[in-house]
Specification:
The chain contains 11 helices and 10 strands. By secondary structure, it is an alpha/beta fold. Helix 5 runs antiparallel to helix 8. The model has no long low-confidence stretch (mean pLDDT about 95).
Length: about 300
């Protein structure tokens, strides 16, 4: 049964110690499959530092396990799906365009190649920032050209919250510049994301996707770069995954696209309970459509 709702799947959001513990305590087929394909031992994963202490491969795999389990508790499928960043893979999974095995295979391949590339030479720095006003969010990229040759608006989350990639790896120097501009830095990753110089490069990513088997989707898939429905073809899905890796991802455009799908009257978000995307999605839907937050993972009751 398909509902009249659409779903937003988040990117690689942080997981707390409690959330990781909840995921790891259930040795079901999803966790076993993730561990086998992504090559880690759940018994050796230490949740004490939250996801900050994990390789991105393990972090993304465990987040996917939590999301898969959470949606299994819902009585109906969604009419449309859209993901941000890493969430594009699980969005394709939930829409039926890839299998769970393929999802974990791509998590392993893409993250392993990103880690390998950035170990050899860091691609840059990714910063989630909160400018003093929404207008400043777009002027900020131009202002950063004074200290970096290619600042890039990587993610637009709405309400002035954005993420910027820069080629510089001198994070402290960039943060000093942002502080002088009156900008609050919310998060920093030691790699570039959603920009032309993201790693792995275009050829490597295209090679990774070339042999992936895509299936006919059972629901609409919306591109986070354009806000438009992705054609239900293997090449269109490959293009969507590649384009959003090297260009700006936009939560406002994604929400617009989901709301435009025929018969959609509400847009839900599935993700960790403390997700900063919750207020962003709620604000973007005000006066337009309903909203629920489906907190994942579900707590384990002894």
């Amino acid at each position: 049964m398909t509902s009249d709702r659409a779903l937003v799947v988040p990117g690689l959001l942080p997981l707390t110690e409690a959330e990781l513990t909840s995921i790891l305590r259930v040795p079901d087929e999803h966790l076993r499959r993730a561990a086998r394909i992504c090559r880690f031992d759940p018994a050796e994963v230490d949740p004490a530092e939250g996801s900050a202490g994990l390789l991105s491969t393990v972090h993304e795999a465990l987040l996917a396990v939590g999301l898969i389990r959470r949606l299994a508790h819902e009585p109906a499928a969604w009419r449309a799906y859209g993901g941000l960043s890493a969430g594009c893979l699980t969005a394709l999974l939930f829409a039926g365009a890839i299998t769970e095995e393929t999802c974990f295979h791509l998590i392993r391949e893409i993250n392993s190649r990103q880690i390998e590339a950035n170990t050899a030479r860091r691609s840059g720095t990714f910063l989630t920032v909160l400018p003093s006003s929404q207008g400043d969010a777009y002027r900020l990229v131009d202002a950063l050209r004074a200290c970096d040759p290619q600042p890039w608006l990587s993610v637009d989350l709405g309400a002035g919250v954005i993420a910027i990639s820069i080629t510089s790896t001198d994070t402290k120097a960039v943060q000093r510049v942002l502080t002088r501009l009156g900008v609050a830095v919310l998060d920093v990753l030691e790699r570039a994301e959603h920009c032309p110089y993201a790693a792995p490069g275009r050829t490597v990513l295209q090679d990774t996707l070339a042999d992936v088997e895509f299936l006919p989707a059972t629901a609409a898939v919306i591109c986070p770069r354009t806000g438009k429905r992705v054609d239900d073809t293997p090449q269109a899905y490959r293009d969507m995954l590649t384009q959003q890796w090297f260009d700006t991802a936009s939560l406002p455009l994604l929400i617009d696209g989901l709301c435009a799908v025929d018969q959609v009257t509400a847009v839900d978000l599935v993700g960790p309970a403390t997700s900063f995307l919750v207020p962003r999605v709620r604000d973007l839907l005000t006066g337009r459509a309903g909203h629920r937050h489906l907190a994942a993972p579900l707590p384990v009751v002894d």
